[in-house]
Design a protein that fits this description.
Distance between the termini: 24 Å
Number of domains: 2
Structural class: alpha/beta
Largest sheet: 8 strands, mixed
Number of strands: 12
CATH topology of the largest domain: Rossmann fold
Number of helices: 10
Radius of gyration: 21 Å
Strand content: 15-25%
CATH architecture of the largest domain: 3-Layer(aba) Sandwich
CATH class of the largest domain: Alpha Beta
Oligomer: single chain
Helix content: 25-40%
Order of helices and strands: EEEHEEHEHHHHEHEHEEHHEE
Bound molecules: iron/sulfur cluster
Strand order of the largest sheet: 6-7-8-3-9-10-12-11
Length: about 325
C-alpha cells in the first residue's frame, strides 16, 4: 500500500484554521471547526482523513474546495499559494484539477437529466478543445474506466435508474472528466450499502494506480481507510490528533481516540458481550474551547496537565505523530 511522495506535494496546508462565529451580537463566540492543520498530499497518494461527525474533516474538504475561506493558515496547490489564485478563471481551473466527489451521489446529480449531462458538461467546461464526437468518446472511455459498462447504456440512464454504487461511480466519472490531479472524496461510501462500499474503495485504489490521481479520502470509518490509504490523519474536535503511514497508525495507534475508534470497529465474529462501549464521556467542546486537550472529557488516561496544556503532535514512531501528553513510543495499545 505504501506509496512514496513524488516530486513536490500536490497539495499542502500550513496552520489551516477555520472558526465560525456563533451566538448573538452581544455575546460573540467562536466555533473552532478546524485548528492549525498541517496536511501534505503527494502525487499519486491516497490520504485518509478520519474522524467522527463534527471533527472538522468536512470543513477541511470545503476549505480545500474553496467553498470556505480560512480564518488563518495557507493552502498551497503545487507550491502555489491558493489565496493568490482568485480570478474566476483560476478558480474554475483549480476545480478541474481538484474536483470533489460528494457524500450523497443522488443529490449531486440532476434528476431530470441523464448521466451523460453531467459528464459532457464537465468535459465541455474543462476540455473545451474537444469536438462533440470526441467528447462523447471521452465520456464513454471514462465510464468504462470507472467500471460502468457498456458505457453507451449508462450515458442514457437517469439517476433514478442507477443503483447507489453506480451513481457514486458516475460521481467519480464526472471528477475524472475534469482531468484531476487530486480528488476530494467526502464520505463517498457512507451512504452506500455495505455490500457495494468495497467496489467504490477498489475503484479509488484503481484510479490511483492507473491514473496516478491523488485522493483525499474523508471518512468516519477508520476500517475502510485501511483498504486504500497510504497516509492516515485522525481528527478530533478540529485538531489532528494522530498522523502517519496508514499501516503503522492502524497497527500501533498511539492516541487514545484512535484506539477508541479502532476498538469500536465491529467484528462480526465476536460475541456481543465483548463489544466495547465506544460512546462514553462528554462530547467535545469546540465553542471557545480554550487550552487543554479536547479529548480530556472522554479520555481514560487524562491527567491534570491535559486540562491546561494543549498537546502538540510529537513523533513517537518514524513519521508517525500523536498529540497526547501521556502517549509514548513504546506504549501498548488499548486493544493489545
Ligand atoms: Fe488523554 Fe491527556 Fe492524551 Fe488528551 S492529552 S488524549 S486527555 S492523556
Amino acid at each position: 500500500m505504501a506509496a512514496t511522495i513524488k516530486q513536490q506535494p500536490i497539495l499542502q496546508t500550513v496552520g489551516l484554521t477555520r472558526h465560525f462565529r456563533v451566538g448573538s451580537l452581544l455575546s460573540r463566540r467562536y466555533l473552532h471547526a478546524v485548528d492549525d492543520v498541517n496536511l501534505t498530499i503527494g502525487g499519486g497518494q491516497v490520504v485518509a482523513l478520519v474522524g467522527e461527525s463534527g471533527s472538522g474533516k468536512s470543513t477541511i474538504a470545503r476549505l480545500l474546495a474553496l467553498i470556505y475561506r480560512p480564518t488563518a493558515g495557507e493552502i498551497f496547490f503545487k507550491g502555489q499559494r491558493l489565496s493568490e489564485r482568485r480570478s474566476r478563471r483560476d478558480v474554475l481551473e483549480y476545480h478541474g484539477r481538484v474536483p470533489m466527489v460528494f457524500q450523497d451521489p443522488y443529490s449531486s446529480l440532476n434528476p431530470v437529466y441523464p448521466a451523460s449531462h453531467a459528464l459532457m458538461r464537465a468535459l465541455k467546461l474543462h476540455q473545451p478543445e474537444l469536438s462533440h464526437p470526441a467528447r462523447r468518446r471521452a465520456a464513454e472511455e471514462i465510464l468504462a474506466s470507472v467500471g460502468l459498462t457498456p458505457p453507451a447504456t449508462f450515458l442514457t440512464k437517469y439517476p433514478h435508474e442507477l443503483s447507489g454504487g453506480q451513481r457514486q461511480r458516475i460521481g467519480f466519472a464526472v471528477a475524472l472528466a475534469c482531468s484531476p490531479e487530486l480528488i476530494l472524496a467526502d464520505e463517498p461510501v457512507s451512504m452506500l450499502d455495505v455490500s457495494v462500499r468495497i467496489g467504490i474503495l477498489n475503484l479509488m485504489a484503481e484510479l490511483r494506480r492507473l491514473k496516478s490521481v491523488s485522493i483525499l479520502y474523508i471518512t468516519h470509518d477508520i476500517a475502510s481507510a485501511r483498504y486504500v490509504a497510504d497516509q492516515l490523519l485522525v481528527m478530533y474536535a478540529g485538531h489532528v490528533v494522530e498522523s502517519g503511514p496508514a499501516e503503522d497508525v492502524l497497527a500501533h495507534p498511539k492516541h487514545p481516540y484512535t484506539q477508541l475508534l479502532l476498538s469500536a470497529v465491529p467484528d462480526p465474529r465476536a460475541p456481543l458481550t465483548s463489544m466495547p462501549a465506544a460512546d462514553v464521556g462528554e462530547p467535545p467542546r469546540v465553542v471557545d474551547p480554550g487550552e487543554g486537550c479536547r479529548f480530556r472529557w472522554r479520555c481514560p488516561y487524562a491527567i491534570d496537565v491535559c486540562s491546561t496544556d494543549t498537546p502538540r503532535l510529537r513523533e513517537l514512531r518514524p513519521s508517525h505523530t500523536a498529540a497526547c501528553h501521556v502517549a509514548t513510543s513504546d506504549m501498548e495499545t488499548a486493544r493489545a
